[in-house]
């Protein structure tokens, strides 16, 4: 009887299980959806659909009396890429629209505007913004100020004196430089962040189902009754999904650079190191959930709550961590996605900045170790 | 004795939850090589738990399980090397092909090279799965899945083979083939443990362990157990339409332990040897009384204290409908196609008032499709069906109000109480107010559900679940009752009680259609339709089906013989163009 050495038999079992898992992934439509379609969908949503810059804000301009000054002001607003302007002569016409939310702000140019300018007095304009969304309100106000300042500059040059140039207020001029993202494109940090979301999805949601499925279908019993040990079982689950996750990440990064023109300034090596530690944490979490729940429905719910939502909300992907209340900020330190999002944004936009990547990688290694230990402890080779 | 035992179980106890009664309660047993040990008992008796304890998938709280000299609480590797285990549902990956399943288990068991090729040749020949290696396991029939499950557990010839309910949901033909395979293995010296709720399978084992509530109430050769009812079993033949009354009368007698219907006969087990039933007392002195061969089931029921006594309370609680020749259920040329596959082809039958009609057939034969069309759950491609005079597909609502349906699996709400289930189902059938109260009270009284009214339906004992399911189907006093595998997995005592209710209703003119895998259960039917490959290949009373396969070497064929013979005869005949 041909008897293999212990190590070879072990290796054969691992390979057999990996092959089985790959075949199952290939035949399962839901894993295609999660691993193939979802990443692209997310990339396209964040690449084209979502942007945190406001453009074409609906704004009402109330011109109570038509004068050349008011007309040039209107032209300034119309030329601004930030506004979609509606013009009217009475404030009452647009107040309802502000209440209804169809315009985000109202700018009123009073009927004595031109007269006051002619007399050399201060000529105020009134800005009313919808304060129900403070973020938008602030942006609208700032943009309006920008247009106003712009108009003043032009008008003061044209009229030489009739309109006081704004520099007379002071002599400080702010000339900002945006490092790493000179165009201030929100895509440039949203897309690296969405790569983290994709990795969370593949790492946790997909693996959360696979052990639970073995329990639900009763196949785990047959497996456990064979000489298969814990290490083979776990490697048989980890290896295929690690490969799948890394492949999805590769595709996402290439798509980000090629299709969405997000710069990538880091090294491939750094990307591999950071992604691997993150992915191992996610895979361990997914398998841990699956092992504990033994039920696909409960597992997918748990995966959404413990991995997907935190990756969205507590990672700094969309919501600035520094702006969060302190207790929540402390919680974000436990979220692997937090470290991964900041690492990816750094790799894409700044490069191999090890002062950022180093601590993040260490944190990820620590989290992975804890999760992997929990996973090994909870994986039993008996049914109880 | 202990020296040659493969498995020694000493005083094991296993509990799930502190309050719950032990699933396995101080059990001792030994399993020897070269024979089949049957693990027999009703659902919930502890069979699966014991199997898992033997497979070292669980460890006992007290006592010890030793497999081939290795304690199961110790190192698992030597235990796993010496045994193979086929769990319920066979443990197959349904999204892998036959070959891929075999490859996986060969890798796991370290069977390589020449040894692997030999194993494949042997197993594929043995299971006749050779032509299907590229088919997904999920696309195989029940019988083929079972064979593949067996093949996967035999990649490396084990010393001990554990089969957990291998015959559940498998038709009699596949069941018979599986037994032949297992006998071959036993001849090679393998010890086989076969767990089953089918008592007729116990008679095929060398040793049986009869489990009830976690305890072994009998261990030994099945013949020894059967011997306890020797000379106490009788058959009252040729009773025709009176068999149900005779059975009811007989079960009222203290001298009768057990009674069942077999075709047009009634089979009785008496309390004392030498005291045959006195036919004159039941007004059937012209019927023929013969001594019957005692069966394992007779002995099992005797051991558990006999069949439930007394007439079903339904008899007095049921609206009486006079029997007549009227056709109550009718299927006319029912055909159902799924794509280019014809699941049911031109099926016709009639069921008269107060008749029990059984639909039988191997897995995938079209039996369930036919049944679903008759319930109005599936629309036929062509053909028509009528229930109580209403066309199921034109006046579906009216037809459905006249039929009660009891699904195969427990289909009540497990997280609602018994009372809430009764209320819900009576409401669904349009009962409200006083009528609803009356209907619920009637069912509670009939099925003695009173003490359990506020328990969750999911937690009550199986026998009571069965009663509750029947109660929910009967609440609106239907004229027609459809039962889909009503007693699969239920112990013989519960099954007898169930049929006493059905018989009482049939005596009151209710019409019953039933599908079943238990051929014992088919014996209760007035007529049987045998469905195979989408066709109704035979129809008739159980006795006439048995007679149709009678030969010189088989003077008393069983219904199982008839089933297998008719299906095989159909396979032999040239395909009609």
Supply database-style keywords.
heterodimer, A: 384 residues, 2 domains, 14 helices, B: 577 residues, alpha/beta, Rossmann fold, 4 domains, six-stranded mixed beta sheet, 24 strands
Quick take:
With 384 residues, chain A is mostly helical. Chain A has two domains: 9-50 and 185-378, no CATH class; 57-169, abc type-2 transporter like domain (abc type-2 transporter like fold). Chain A is built from 14 helices and four strands.
Instruction: Characterize the overall form of chain A.
Output: elongated
* Percent range for β-strand residues of chain A: 5-15%
The name of the CATH architecture of the largest domain in chain B is 3-Layer(aba) Sandwich
Query: How many discrete structural domains of chain A?
Result: 2
The total count of strands of chain A amounts to 4
Output mean pLDDT of chain A: 84
General shape of chain B: globular
Number of strands of chain B: 24
Low-pLDDT segments, ≥5 res of chain B: none
| pLDDT averaged residue by residue of chain B | 86
What portion of the residues of chain B fall into strands of 2 or more residues? 15-25%
Figure out the total of helices of chain A: 14
User: How is the CATH topology of the largest domain in chain B named?
Assistant: Rossmann fold
The biggest beta sheet of chain A is recorded as: 4 strands, mixed
- If helices are DSSP runs of H or I spanning 4 or more residues, what is the number of helices of chain B? 20
Please give the oligomerization state of what you see. heterodimer
How many domains, in number, for the residues of chain B?
4
Class by SSE composition of chain B: alpha/beta
Radius of gyration of chain B: 25 Å
The helix/strand series of chain A, from N terminus to C terminus, equals HHEHEHEHEHHHHHHHHH
């Amino acid at each position: 009887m041909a008897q293999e050495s212990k190590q070879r038999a072990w290796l054969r079992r691992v390979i057999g299980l990996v092959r089985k898992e790959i075949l199952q992934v290939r035949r399962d439509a839901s894993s295609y959806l999660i691993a193939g379609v979802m990443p692209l969908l997310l990339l396209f949503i964040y690449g084209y659909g979502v942007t945190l810059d406001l453009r074409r804000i609906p704004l009402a301009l109330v011109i109570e009396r038509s004068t050349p000054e008011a007309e040039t002001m209107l032209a300034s607003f119309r030329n601004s890429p930030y506004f979609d302007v509606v013009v009217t002569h009475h404030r009452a016409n647009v107040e309802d629209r502000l209440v209804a939310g169809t315009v985000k702000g109202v700018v009123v140019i009073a009927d004595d505007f031109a007269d006051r300018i002619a007399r050399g007095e201060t000529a105020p304009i009134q800005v009313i913004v919808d304060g129900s969304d403070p973020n938008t309100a602030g942006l609208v106000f700032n943009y309006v100020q920008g247009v106003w300042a712009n108009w003043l500059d032009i008008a003061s040059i044209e009229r030489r004196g009739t309109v006081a140039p704004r520099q007379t207020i002071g002599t400080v001029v702010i000339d900002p430089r945006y490092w790493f993202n000179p165009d201030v494109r929100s895509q440039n940090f949203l897309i690296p962040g969405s790569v983290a979301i994709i990795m969370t999805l593949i790492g946790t949601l997909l693996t959360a189902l696979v052990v639970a499925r073995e329990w639900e279908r009763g196949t785990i019993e047959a497996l456990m009754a064979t000489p298969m040990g814990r290490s083979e079982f776990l490697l048989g689950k980890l290896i295929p999904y690690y490969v799948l996750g890394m492949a999805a990440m590769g595709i996402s990064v290439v798509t980000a650079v090629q299709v969405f023109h997000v710069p990538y300034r880091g090294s491939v090596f750094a990307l591999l190191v950071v992604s691997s530690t993150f992915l191992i944490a996610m895979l361990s979490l997914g398998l841990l959930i699956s092992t504990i729940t033994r039920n696909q429905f409960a597992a997918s719910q748990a995966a959404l709550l413990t991995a997907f939502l935190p990756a969205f909300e507590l990672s700094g992907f969309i919501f600035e961590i520094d702006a969060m209340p302190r207790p929540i900020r402390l919680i974000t330190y436990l979220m692997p996605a937090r470290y991964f999002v900041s690492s990816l944004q750094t790799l894409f936009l700044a490069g191999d900045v090890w002062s950022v990547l180093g601590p993040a990688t260490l944190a990820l290694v620590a989290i992975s170790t804890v999760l992997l230990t929990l996973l090994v402890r909870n994986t039993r080779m008996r049914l109880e | 004795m202990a020296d040659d035992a493969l498995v020694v179980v000493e005083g094991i106890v296993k509990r799930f939850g502190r309050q719950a009664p032990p699933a396995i309660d101080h059990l001792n047993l030994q399993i020897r090589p070269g024979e089949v040990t049957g693990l027999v008992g009703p659902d919930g008796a502890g069979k699966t738990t014991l199997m898992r304890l033997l497979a070292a998938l669980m460890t006992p709280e007290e006592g010890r399980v030793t497999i081939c000299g290795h304690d199961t609480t110790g190192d698992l590797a030597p235990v796993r090397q010496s045994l193979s285990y086929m769990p319920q549902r066979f443990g197959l990956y349904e999204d892998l092909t036959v070959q891929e399943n075999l490859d996986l288990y060969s890798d796991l068991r370290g069977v390589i090279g020449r040894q692997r090729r030999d194993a494949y040749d042997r197993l594929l020949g043995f299971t006749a799965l050779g032509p299907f290696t590229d088919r997904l396991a999920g696309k195989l029939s029940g019988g083929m899945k079972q064979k593949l499950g067996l093949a996967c557990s035999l990649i490396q010839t084990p010393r001990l083979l554990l089969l957990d309910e291998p015959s559940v949901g498998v038709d009699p033909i596949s069941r018979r083939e599986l037994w032949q395979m297992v006998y071959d293995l036993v001849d090679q010296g393998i010890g086989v443990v076969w767990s089953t709720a089918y008592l007729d399978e116990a008679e095929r084992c060398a040793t049986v362990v009869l489990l009830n509530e976690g305890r072994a109430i009998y261990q030994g050769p099945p013949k020894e157990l059967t011997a306890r009812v020797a000379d106490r079993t009788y058959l009252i033949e040729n009773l025709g339409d009176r068999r149900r009354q005779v059975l009811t009368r007989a079960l009222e007698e203290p001298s009768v332990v057990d009674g069942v219907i077999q075709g047009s006969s009634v089979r009785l087990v008496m309390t004392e040897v030498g005291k045959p039933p006195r036919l004159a007392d039941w007004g059937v002195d012209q019927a023929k009384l013969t001594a019957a061969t005692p069966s394992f089931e007779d002995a099992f029921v005797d051991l558990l204290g006999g069949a439930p006594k007394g007439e079903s309370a339904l008899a007095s609680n049921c609206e009486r409908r006079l029997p007549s020749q009227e056709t109550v259920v009718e299927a006319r040329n029912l055909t159902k196609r799924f794509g280019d596959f014809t699941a049911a082809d031109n099926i016709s039958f009639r069921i008269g008032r107060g008749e029990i009609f059984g639909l039988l057939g191997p897995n995938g034969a079209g039996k369930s499709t036919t049944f679903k069309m008759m319930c109005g759950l599936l629309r036929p491609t062509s053909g028509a069906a009528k229930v109580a005079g209403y066309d199921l597909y034109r006046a579906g609502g009216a037809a459905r109000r006249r039929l009660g349906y009891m699904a195969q699996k427990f289909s009540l709400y497990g997280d609602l109480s018994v009372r809430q289930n009764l209320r819900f189902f009576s409401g669904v059938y349009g009962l409200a107010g006083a009528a609803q109260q009356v209907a619920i009270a009637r069912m509670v009284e009939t099925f003695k559900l009173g003490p359990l009214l506020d328990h969750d339906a999911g937690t009550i004992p199986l026998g009571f679940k069965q009663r509750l399911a029947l109660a929910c189907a009967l609440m609106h006093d239907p004229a027609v009752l459809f039962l889909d595998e009503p007693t699969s997995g239920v112990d013989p005592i519960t099954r007898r009680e169930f049929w006493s209710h059905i018989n009482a209703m049939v005596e009151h003119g209710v019409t019953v259609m039933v599908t079943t895998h238990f051929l014992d259960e088919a014996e209760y039917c007035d007529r049987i339709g045998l469905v195979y490959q989408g066709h109704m290949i035979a129809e008739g009373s159980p006795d006439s089906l048995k007679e149709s396969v009678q030969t010189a070497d088989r003077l008393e064929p069983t219904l199982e013989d008839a089933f297998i013979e008719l299906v095989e005869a159909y396979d032999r005949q040239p395909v009609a163009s």
